[in-house]
Design a protein that fits this description.
Elements: E1 8-13, E2 17-23, H1 43-61, E3 66-78, E4 87-93, E5 102-111, E6 114-127, H2 134-145
Antiparallel strand pairs: 1-2, 2-4, 3-6, 4-5, 5-6
Length: 148
């Protein structure tokens, strides 16, 4: 099973930052068990949404030649929960890289302007074609950005 946690890309500044949205729907299967009778989107899945958004930033910044794979979370803070019906605003920025292949990012997930997760993470850039069909990813990104 594959979870896609970015429902929309709202802005992109290639090589610098990207923003997007995750809409938490009551029908998502992870809510059934986390927590029974009190469904919330796990904070770690919000972190995953930020990492997925980072992948899109790297894809767009490299003309869909590269993708980001997280290798280490340097810092993370979990402030509150995301509930069914919430619109989670995601934002990722990229400060100058410490090396060509190792990149550090910072990200924030918010609901109505209130922080849910803040994180700093690093990872590697890999060739997109080794993990996905490039043309398919380009088409999917067009859907995600809808003319941004």
């Amino acid at each position: 099973m594959r979870y896609l946690f970015v429902d929309r890309v709202t802005a992109v500044e290639p090589g610098k930052k990207i923003t997007g949205v995750k809409n938490v729907a009551m029908s998502e299967d992870f809510l059934e068990f986390h927590f029974p009778k009190n469904p919330i989107m796990p904070g770690i899945l919000l972190l995953e949404a930020l990492v997925q958004l980072t992948g899109w930033l790297e894809a767009v910044s490299s003309d869909f030649r590269k993708w980001f794979l997280v290798s280490k979370v340097l810092k993370s803070s979990f402030y509150s929960f995301a509930y069914p019906g919430d619109r989670v605003e995601l934002s990722v920025s990229c400060p100058p890289a410490p090396s060509k292949d190792l990149v550090v990012y910072s990200g924030v997930a918010q609901v109505n302007g209130k922080r849910r997760v803040k994180a700093e993470f690093l990872g590697n850039l890999v060739d997109l074609e080794t993990i996905e069909e490039v043309e398919e990813q380009k088409r999917y990104f067009e859907i995600l950005q809808r003319g941004v």
